[in-house]
Specification:
five-stranded mixed beta sheet; alpha/beta; single chain; 5 strands
């Protein structure tokens, strides 16, 4: 049987090399993005297998390194497609030896972003690809983390879809994607930065009456 208590207290601590770098302007009202992604067992249970997160300021400058934790699950239902995918990328093998429960993972995420979320003037918005999907899972399994975040979402997939609709189709790289949270978060963050540059370059600073 797996010893879930072995070094458990150490596992509950965030990566000491990825502590939040608090901006100098933290005493005033500030906005932040929490890029977050879950990997799950898929329908129907959607049990959490892995969580990844990275906190940035409103200009998408990272305040921490991207972190991730694998979550222990047992006796779950999983489709053949998801089974093959997470066997290939090694996630299921990591799940089998993980000591972390969902509650533990939530504690780690909340602790790592606490220096920002615990300040009443700060607003942290959930960011990612279709973050409403992750928000539903968060509300179900990580309600404490959910309460740390603003109700608004920053959906980077909407920006990408708009470009697909109105400019040109962006080539899909799904086959190259490992379907692990760190890769997904960093890809999402890079796309967000690309659109930030487009906005800064091609949109006037004053568009009163246009929006």
């Amino acid at each position: 049987m797996l010893d879930t208590k072995h070094n458990h207290s150490q596992l509950l601590d965030p990566d000491p090399n990825s502590s939040v770098r608090i901006p100098e302007t933290s005493s005033v009202r500030s906005d932040y993005f929490l890029f977050l992604d879950y990997e799950t067992t898929g329908d129907p249970e959607r049990k959490l297998l892995e969580v990844g997160w990275m906190l940035t300021d409103s200009n998408l400058e990272p305040l921490m390194d991207c972190q991730s934790r694998v979550i222990r699950q047992e006796n779950y239902i999983i489709s053949n497609k998801i089974l093959k995918m997470h066997t290939k990328n090694g996630l299921l093998a990591d799940v089998a030896v993980s000591n972390l429960e969902v509650f533990d993972a939530q504690h780690i995420v909340c602790t790592s972003i606490g220096p920002i979320t615990e300040k009443p003037n700060n607003r942290v918005t959930l960011a990612g690809f279709t973050p409403h999907y992750d928000r539903e899972l968060m509300q179900r399994d990580m309600p404490k983390l959910d309460r740390c975040l603003h109700y608004r979402h920053f959906d980077v997939s909407v920006l990408r879809a708009a470009y697909n609709y109105w400019v040109e189709k962006i080539p899909s790289k799904k086959d190259e994607h490992p379907h692990r949270v760190t890769a997904d978060i960093l890809a999402c963050w890079e796309i967000a930065k690309t659109f930030k540059k487009l906005f800064e370059t091609h949109m006037p600073k004053s568009i009163e009456g246009a929006l």
